[in-house]
Amino acid sequence: MTQQVHNALAGIGKDCDLCFRLVSLVHEQEPVPFLRGALELVVGVTQAQQGYLELQPDDDGNGTPRWWMAHGFSAEEIESVRRAISRGIIAEALATGQTIVTPSALLDPRFSGRDSVRLGRIEAVLCAPIGDDPPRGVLYLQGRAAPGLFSEEEQGRVEIFARHLAPLADRLLVQDRTRAVADPTKSLRETLRLSGVIGRSPALAAVLRQVALIAPLDVSVLLTGESGTGKSQLARVIHDNGPRAGRPFVEVSCGALPENLVESELFGALPGAHSTATRRMDGKVAAAESGTLFLDEIGDLSLAAQAKLLQLLQSKQYYPLGSSKPVQADVRVVAATNTDLQRGVAEHRFREDLFYRLQVLPIRVPALAERREDIPELVAFFGGNACERHGLPRLALSGNALRAAETAEWPGNIRQLAHAVEAAMIRAVSERSMQIERNHLFPELAESSAEPLPITFQEATRRFQARLLRETLEETGWNVMDAARRLDLARSHVYNLIRALGLERTPE
Fold first, then answer.
1. Closest alpha carbon to 336 in 232, 406, 420
2. pTM confidence score
3. Is the C or the N end of the chain the one with fewer CB within 10 Å?
């Protein structure tokens, strides 16, 4: 294969890879992560030292951009760059709709007179408008990590990148505006502390409206709903938005307590009260003093423990095991169950008086099947968490995988979905896939299917990259530096590709 063909294929491959990696960022549901990922991508490809990306505002009356992102700039430098939007290099790119490239702004007569250029001693610059007629925004790159100027090839790739970025960014911003208008949880998020609460469905909004009503009241609450729907998280939200926020939040899984130790675990015990009580033991009620006691799976409490809990709710007092003196308690009780407590009352497994004491302000947490429109956002959230926890590269779900997730039955609700996404991420990374496919999320379906899965565009691109890189390495005797020079890539990037594509040198 000739050097010219190599160079042509390398250029095509890099352009395809750049565009694909940009498109893969669309899994981001919010503009800020998308813009951050896009800027980091183009900075890495061009080896620029600093970068700035801005989408011009709609007609909001004050000219202040809502969406902008910087990379490699200090806070003072960012302000300088943003002031230059109305003049200089960036202004010219926006006014003419043309890419501005200069080997040295400091020596370029068009810009050398600018104070910001002189003070910053700005050298190589590449500034491309995003979109056209008029430009939607601007992409500004300054300085290079490697010696030399921004090449014509890099300029071409940046222009292709900016051209593809415009419609993707527009679509995301339209979605953001649409969500802001149609999001029934928006007003609630402005008044409640809802860290980690994912979703915008009407079903979730209905629950949050109940939380907004109940949280400020210092009363007991009963949360009902299927297993895995997020009752524990909702209990924390009630605590964080109530009068006891900042005080202890103590969670107890009643089903996990040994039956013979339930009372001492909850209410404490005096020395000698039972065989393991060699000293005074403070229970969970004491640990939650002035705060919230969350009793998960309350239907699993023994009748004796239920009687003591009823006394606590009624009199704000309790007796530690082995004590004849009551202890005053100041706690808020939030209980949760995935069982039918009314049936428990009928079957004499749950005290009727305790049931009605808790039933005053019940909140039913909806199953995932009732809020399917939240699944894409939940998937993105769980995928991001899994990547951070395991140090994995972030992958998006393919369209087929996402549609399968939205239509699948999730009997384990949000908890099951979270575990499935985490496992799918690990499977996809282990197979060096460019994204999470349906068979990664539902491996049992792939095993039962005799039909081969179609090759996706992403997989075809990956195979092309692997073939081109292997041929180049073999022609250079696996000299990575020579291969990087031929392919116009950084040597570190070639090493990363070798690992990512699973290439190994064939023994001679």
1. 232
2. 0.58
3. C
